[in-house]
Write a structure and sequence with these properties.
There is one protein chain. By secondary structure, the protein is of the alpha/beta class. It is built from 11 helices and 12 strands. Helix 2 crosses helix 10 and helix 2 runs antiparallel to helix 11. It is globular. The termini are far apart.
Length: about 250
Protein backbone atom coordinates (compact mmCIF):
# COMPACT_ATOMS: atom_id res chain seq x y z
CA UNK A 1 0.00 0.00 0.00
CA UNK A 2 2.86 2.34 0.91
CA UNK A 3 4.51 1.68 -2.46
CA UNK A 4 1.30 2.44 -4.32
CA UNK A 5 0.85 5.65 -2.34
CA UNK A 6 4.46 6.60 -3.10
CA UNK A 7 3.84 6.19 -6.83
CA UNK A 8 0.70 8.32 -6.49
CA UNK A 9 2.66 11.14 -4.85
CA UNK A 10 5.34 10.92 -7.53
CA UNK A 11 2.75 11.08 -10.30
CA UNK A 12 1.09 14.06 -8.64
CA UNK A 13 4.42 15.84 -8.30
CA UNK A 14 5.23 15.28 -11.96
CA UNK A 15 1.81 16.59 -12.95
CA UNK A 16 2.13 19.75 -10.91
CA UNK A 17 5.68 20.48 -12.05
CA UNK A 18 5.18 19.53 -15.71
CA UNK A 19 7.62 21.47 -17.88
CA UNK A 20 6.09 24.46 -19.59
CA UNK A 21 6.40 24.44 -23.37
CA UNK A 22 7.27 27.87 -24.77
CA UNK A 23 6.47 28.93 -28.32
CA UNK A 24 7.33 32.14 -30.11
CA UNK A 25 8.10 33.35 -33.62
CA UNK A 26 10.84 35.01 -35.62
CA UNK A 27 9.89 38.60 -34.71
CA UNK A 28 13.01 40.73 -34.19
CA UNK A 29 13.86 42.68 -32.15
CA UNK A 30 11.36 41.21 -29.67
CA UNK A 31 12.05 37.50 -30.15
CA UNK A 32 14.11 35.71 -32.77
CA UNK A 33 16.62 32.92 -33.24
CA UNK A 34 20.19 33.77 -34.09
CA UNK A 35 23.15 31.42 -33.97
CA UNK A 36 20.98 28.69 -32.48
CA UNK A 37 19.86 30.89 -29.57
CA UNK A 38 16.52 32.61 -29.05
CA UNK A 39 17.15 36.25 -28.14
CA UNK A 40 15.41 39.64 -28.19
CA UNK A 41 13.78 42.10 -25.80
CA UNK A 42 10.74 39.98 -24.93
CA UNK A 43 12.89 36.89 -24.59
CA UNK A 44 15.03 38.62 -21.96
CA UNK A 45 11.95 39.34 -19.85
CA UNK A 46 10.33 35.92 -20.24
CA UNK A 47 13.65 34.21 -19.44
CA UNK A 48 13.83 36.15 -16.16
CA UNK A 49 10.29 35.02 -15.27
CA UNK A 50 11.32 31.40 -15.75
CA UNK A 51 14.51 31.96 -13.76
CA UNK A 52 12.53 33.40 -10.87
CA UNK A 53 10.29 30.34 -10.89
CA UNK A 54 13.20 27.94 -11.22
CA UNK A 55 11.68 26.55 -14.41
CA UNK A 56 13.69 25.43 -17.47
CA UNK A 57 13.34 27.89 -20.33
CA UNK A 58 13.58 26.30 -23.79
CA UNK A 59 11.65 28.48 -26.26
CA UNK A 60 10.81 27.06 -29.66
CA UNK A 61 10.63 29.36 -32.68
CA UNK A 62 7.80 28.25 -34.97
CA UNK A 63 5.53 29.87 -37.59
CA UNK A 64 3.18 32.29 -35.84
CA UNK A 65 -0.03 30.51 -36.82
CA UNK A 66 1.32 27.29 -35.32
CA UNK A 67 2.32 29.13 -32.14
CA UNK A 68 -1.16 30.57 -31.72
CA UNK A 69 -2.82 27.19 -32.17
CA UNK A 70 -0.35 25.42 -29.87
CA UNK A 71 -0.94 27.88 -27.03
CA UNK A 72 -4.70 27.83 -27.52
CA UNK A 73 -5.11 24.05 -27.79
CA UNK A 74 -2.26 22.53 -25.74
CA UNK A 75 -2.09 22.60 -21.92
CA UNK A 76 0.98 24.17 -20.28
CA UNK A 77 2.02 26.00 -23.42
CA UNK A 78 3.08 29.64 -23.14
CA UNK A 79 3.22 32.04 -26.07
CA UNK A 80 5.02 35.37 -26.46
CA UNK A 81 5.10 38.16 -27.79
CA UNK A 82 1.36 38.29 -28.39
CA UNK A 83 -0.76 41.39 -28.90
CA UNK A 84 -4.07 41.70 -27.07
CA UNK A 85 -7.27 42.60 -28.93
CA UNK A 86 -10.97 41.74 -28.37
CA UNK A 87 -10.82 39.04 -31.08
CA UNK A 88 -8.27 37.14 -28.98
CA UNK A 89 -9.47 37.99 -25.50
CA UNK A 90 -11.39 34.80 -24.67
CA UNK A 91 -8.92 32.41 -26.33
CA UNK A 92 -6.04 33.07 -23.95
CA UNK A 93 -5.21 33.68 -20.32
CA UNK A 94 -3.13 36.85 -20.26
CA UNK A 95 -0.17 36.68 -17.91
CA UNK A 96 1.03 40.25 -18.35
CA UNK A 97 2.89 42.80 -20.47
CA UNK A 98 6.50 41.92 -21.31
CA UNK A 99 7.51 44.69 -23.74
CA UNK A 100 6.32 48.08 -25.06
CA UNK A 101 4.81 48.15 -28.54
CA UNK A 102 3.35 50.60 -31.04
CA UNK A 103 1.63 49.51 -34.23
CA UNK A 104 1.26 51.83 -37.20
CA UNK A 105 0.01 52.02 -40.73
CA UNK A 106 2.98 53.17 -42.79
CA UNK A 107 2.99 54.77 -46.21
CA UNK A 108 5.90 55.41 -48.56
CA UNK A 109 8.02 58.27 -47.25
CA UNK A 110 7.85 60.16 -50.55
CA UNK A 111 4.08 59.78 -51.02
CA UNK A 112 2.35 63.11 -50.43
CA UNK A 113 -1.00 62.05 -51.88
CA UNK A 114 -2.14 59.61 -49.20
CA UNK A 115 -3.89 61.34 -46.30
CA UNK A 116 -5.35 59.18 -43.54
CA UNK A 117 -7.33 60.67 -40.70
CA UNK A 118 -9.39 57.63 -39.71
CA UNK A 119 -9.33 53.85 -39.98
CA UNK A 120 -12.00 54.06 -42.67
CA UNK A 121 -9.59 56.06 -44.85
CA UNK A 122 -7.23 53.06 -44.87
CA UNK A 123 -9.82 51.05 -46.84
CA UNK A 124 -9.11 53.15 -49.90
CA UNK A 125 -5.71 51.49 -50.30
CA UNK A 126 -4.05 48.09 -50.41
CA UNK A 127 -2.38 47.25 -47.12
CA UNK A 128 0.05 44.40 -46.53
CA UNK A 129 -0.14 42.44 -43.26
CA UNK A 130 1.45 39.35 -41.77
CA UNK A 131 -0.93 36.39 -41.80
CA UNK A 132 -2.88 36.00 -38.53
CA UNK A 133 -0.90 38.80 -36.91
CA UNK A 134 -2.63 40.98 -34.35
CA UNK A 135 -2.82 43.72 -36.97
CA UNK A 136 -4.46 41.50 -39.58
CA UNK A 137 -6.98 40.14 -37.08
CA UNK A 138 -7.73 43.68 -35.95
CA UNK A 139 -8.41 44.85 -39.50
CA UNK A 140 -10.64 41.87 -40.22
CA UNK A 141 -12.57 42.65 -37.05
CA UNK A 142 -13.14 46.15 -38.44
CA UNK A 143 -14.56 44.88 -41.74
CA UNK A 144 -11.42 44.79 -43.88
CA UNK A 145 -11.36 41.92 -46.37
CA UNK A 146 -8.45 39.82 -47.57
CA UNK A 147 -7.95 40.17 -51.29
CA UNK A 148 -9.81 43.46 -51.35
CA UNK A 149 -8.22 45.62 -48.68
CA UNK A 150 -5.61 43.25 -47.24
CA UNK A 151 -2.65 41.53 -48.88
CA UNK A 152 -1.74 38.75 -46.44
CA UNK A 153 1.77 37.22 -46.41
CA UNK A 154 3.71 34.77 -44.22
CA UNK A 155 7.05 36.59 -44.29
CA UNK A 156 7.99 40.01 -42.89
CA UNK A 157 10.72 40.45 -45.48
CA UNK A 158 8.24 39.73 -48.25
CA UNK A 159 5.84 42.26 -46.79
CA UNK A 160 8.56 44.91 -46.90
CA UNK A 161 9.46 44.00 -50.49
CA UNK A 162 5.84 44.27 -51.62
CA UNK A 163 5.79 47.68 -49.99
CA UNK A 164 9.10 48.94 -51.41
CA UNK A 165 8.24 47.56 -54.86
CA UNK A 166 5.06 49.68 -54.71
CA UNK A 167 2.77 46.65 -55.03
CA UNK A 168 0.86 48.01 -52.04
CA UNK A 169 0.39 51.55 -50.78
CA UNK A 170 0.41 50.78 -47.04
CA UNK A 171 2.12 48.48 -44.56
CA UNK A 172 0.67 47.65 -41.13
CA UNK A 173 3.50 46.80 -38.76
CA UNK A 174 4.94 47.19 -35.31
CA UNK A 175 7.24 50.21 -35.32
CA UNK A 176 10.36 48.52 -33.99
CA UNK A 177 9.96 45.48 -36.23
CA UNK A 178 9.41 47.67 -39.30
CA UNK A 179 12.57 49.63 -38.53
CA UNK A 180 14.52 46.42 -38.00
CA UNK A 181 13.57 44.96 -41.38
CA UNK A 182 14.11 48.21 -43.25
CA UNK A 183 17.63 48.53 -41.82
CA UNK A 184 18.33 44.85 -42.50
CA UNK A 185 17.43 45.45 -46.14
CA UNK A 186 20.05 48.19 -46.25
CA UNK A 187 17.50 50.97 -46.53
CA UNK A 188 17.01 54.21 -44.66
CA UNK A 189 14.03 54.27 -42.33
CA UNK A 190 13.53 57.99 -42.94
CA UNK A 191 13.56 57.57 -46.73
CA UNK A 192 11.37 54.44 -46.74
CA UNK A 193 8.65 54.77 -44.12
CA UNK A 194 6.27 57.40 -42.88
CA UNK A 195 3.78 56.52 -40.13
CA UNK A 196 0.36 57.86 -41.05
CA UNK A 197 -1.98 56.21 -38.58
CA UNK A 198 -1.40 54.86 -35.07
CA UNK A 199 -3.35 51.67 -34.41
CA UNK A 200 -3.96 52.71 -30.83
CA UNK A 201 -6.56 50.01 -30.14
CA UNK A 202 -4.05 47.21 -30.72
CA UNK A 203 -2.59 46.12 -27.39
CA UNK A 204 -1.72 49.69 -26.33
CA UNK A 205 -0.13 48.44 -23.09
CA UNK A 206 2.41 46.40 -25.07
CA UNK A 207 3.05 42.76 -25.95
CA UNK A 208 2.05 39.96 -23.58
CA UNK A 209 2.97 36.48 -22.54
CA UNK A 210 -0.08 34.23 -22.37
CA UNK A 211 -1.46 30.71 -21.97
CA UNK A 212 -4.48 29.13 -23.62
CA UNK A 213 -7.55 28.13 -21.65
CA UNK A 214 -6.45 24.49 -21.37
CA UNK A 215 -3.70 25.50 -18.94
CA UNK A 216 -4.72 25.49 -15.29
CA UNK A 217 -5.42 28.81 -13.62
CA UNK A 218 -2.91 27.85 -10.90
CA UNK A 219 -0.07 27.72 -13.44
CA UNK A 220 -1.15 31.02 -15.01
CA UNK A 221 -1.32 32.72 -11.62
CA UNK A 222 2.15 31.46 -10.72
CA UNK A 223 3.56 33.12 -13.83
CA UNK A 224 1.59 36.32 -13.21
CA UNK A 225 3.05 36.61 -9.74
CA UNK A 226 6.59 36.03 -11.00
CA UNK A 227 6.23 38.69 -13.72
CA UNK A 228 4.74 41.13 -11.24
CA UNK A 229 7.65 40.50 -8.89
CA UNK A 230 10.09 41.42 -11.67
CA UNK A 231 8.24 44.69 -12.16
CA UNK A 232 8.17 45.46 -8.45
CA UNK A 233 11.87 44.84 -7.88
CA UNK A 234 12.93 46.90 -10.93
CA UNK A 235 14.25 43.99 -13.03
CA UNK A 236 11.70 44.51 -15.79
CA UNK A 237 12.38 48.22 -16.19
CA UNK A 238 16.15 47.63 -16.13
CA UNK A 239 15.83 45.16 -18.99
CA UNK A 240 13.78 47.59 -21.07
CA UNK A 241 16.07 50.54 -20.41
CA UNK A 242 19.27 48.55 -21.00
CA UNK A 243 17.92 47.19 -24.26
CA UNK A 244 16.86 50.61 -25.48
CA UNK A 245 20.05 52.39 -24.39
CA UNK A 246 22.12 49.63 -25.91
CA UNK A 247 20.36 50.25 -29.22
CA UNK A 248 18.96 46.72 -29.17
CA UNK A 249 15.86 48.10 -30.82
Amino acid sequence: MRTVFGFFLLALSLTVSAQIKVVTEQFPPYNYQEGGEVIGLSTLVVREVFNKLGEPFEPEVVPWVRALVAAEKTPDTLIYSIGRIPERESKYQWVGVIAPAKNYVFKHADDDKILIKSLEDVKQYRIVTFKESVREQYFEGKGFEKGKHIVSVYDYGKALKLFTDRKVELWAMNELVAHYHVKKAGLSVRDTLKPVFLLEEISPEGYYMAFGNKTSSEVVQKFRQALEALKKDGTYQNIIETFVNGDGM
